[in-house]
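I hope you will forgive my troubling you with a question about protein structure. The matter concerns a single protein, recorded as an amino acid sequence and a row of C-alpha cells. Please examine both parts with care and let me know of anything in them that strikes you as inconsistent. Thank you for your consideration; the sequence and its C-alpha cells are set out here:
***
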Amino acid sequence: MDFAKLLADINNFVWGPVMLALLVGTGVFLTVRLHFLPWRNLFYAMKLIFTKKGETEGDITPFQSLMTALSATIGTGNIVGVATAMVLGGPGALVWMWISAAFGLSTKYGESVLAVKYRETNSIGEMSGGPMYAMRNGIGGTVGKVMGVMFAFFAATASFGIGNMTQANAMAAALESGFFVPTWITGAVVMVASLIVLTRGIRSIGAVSGVVVPAMSVFYFCMTLIVIVMNFSAIPAGLSEIFRMAFSFDAVAGGVGGSIIATILTSMRWGVARGVFSNEAGLGSAPIAAAAAQTDHPARQGYVNMTGTFFDTMIVCMLTGLAISSSGVLGTVDPETGKLVSGVQLTVLALGTVFGEYAKYVVAVALALFSFSTILGWEYYGEKSFEYLFKNRKAIMGYRIVYSMATYIGATMALDMVWNISDTMNGLMAIPNLICLLWLSKDIADVTFDYEENVVALEKKGVENNCKDTFADTNQ
C-alpha cells in the first residue's frame, strides 16, 4: 500500500465538500441565530481592539490576544493560498473567499465567546481556554469530555506540522530563493529565536506578536497597494471578471486570467477552502488565544477576535488577489514546465510588474515574517492543547523546547508527508468544534443578546458601562 497516497486521499476527504459545507453552513446558522449582530457590530468591534476595561482577569491585553490569533492566521495562506485558489478556481474564487469570511465572522465570534465563558485558571495562574474547555464544561458529561480530548489531540498534533515545520520550510525556501541564505542557517536562527520567545510563555508571545504582526501587515499592505495603484486602470475590468467567473456555470477567464477555465463549483470549492485555511474560522484554534485576554465579558472579546477574520481574508487576501488580477499575470504559463504559474511564484510575478527583480525580495521578507509569526501563534495553541491532556508543568516546558527544535527539521527537510498529516489533523479539529458551536449556540446567543442590551446599546450612546456583574452572570 502506498502510505503517502493513502494520506493524501484521507486529507482530500477531510477537506472535501462535506467539510466545507459544514464550515460555511455553521457560519450561516450562527449569523441568522445572532440576528446578524456580528455584521452589524463590525465597526464597533474594531473600536474595541484598543480598549482595555479596568480591572479584568486575563494574561494579555485584548489587542495582544488578537495579534496572537492573527500571528497564527496571517501566513503563507495569504500569499501562496490566494494565488493557488485563483489558478485552480479561477479569479472568481476570490469572491467566495470573501463570502466564506463574511459568515466566518460569526463562527469566529461564537467560538471566542465560548472560549472566554468556559475558560479556567491553571496551576500557575494563567488562563486556559478554547473549544476543549467549552466541550468539557459546556456540553459536559462523557460526550463533552471525549470531544475535548479529541480536539486537544488533533490540535497538539497539527501544531507541529501546519503551525511549525511547514511554516519553517516555507520561510527557508523563500530566504534561499530571495537572498541565497542556506536553509540550515534559517533553521538555526528560527530555532534560537523561537526558544527565546516561547520558553517565556504567553506574555512573551503576546508582546512579540503585538509588534511583529502590525509591522508585517503594514509592510505587505503597502507593497501590494502600490502594485494595485500602479495597475489601477486594470481594476474595473479585473473586478468585473472576478464577479462574472464567481457565478458562471462555465466560463473562460478574459483579460485577468488568460486561458483559465472555471465553473461556479470550482470557484466556490477553492475559494472557500483557501479562505478557511487562511482565517481558520471554525477550526477552533483562534479561541485559545481569545481565552487569555483581559476582558470583562465573553462577547466583548468575541467581537475583538472576530475582526481577525476581517483583517486576514477581507483585507490581506483581498490585496493579494487584486494585485494578481490587476497585474495581468494570472494564467501565465511556465515555459519550462508548460504548466500554469501558481503559488508564491505567481505572487512574485504580480509584484514584479512594479518592483521588477526586487519583487522576490519583497515576497521573501513577507513570507519570512508571516511564517515566523505563525510559528509563535501555533505554539500557544499546541501548548494549551497539550496542557489539557497532560497537566505536568515540566512536560509543558518540554513541549516548548521540542516545538522550537522542530523548526530546524522543518527548515531543512522535505515535508510532503508531514504536510498531509498535519493538514488532516487541522481539518479534524473542526469536526468537534463545529458540533460544539451548534450544540451551545443558545449559550452564544444568550451572551450576545445580554451584551447587546446592557453594554453595546449604552456605549453607542456614549454611556460607559463596566459589565463585571454581567460577566459573572454569563459564567454561572
User: Anything to note?
Assistant: The chain has one domain: 15-474. The mean pLDDT is 85.
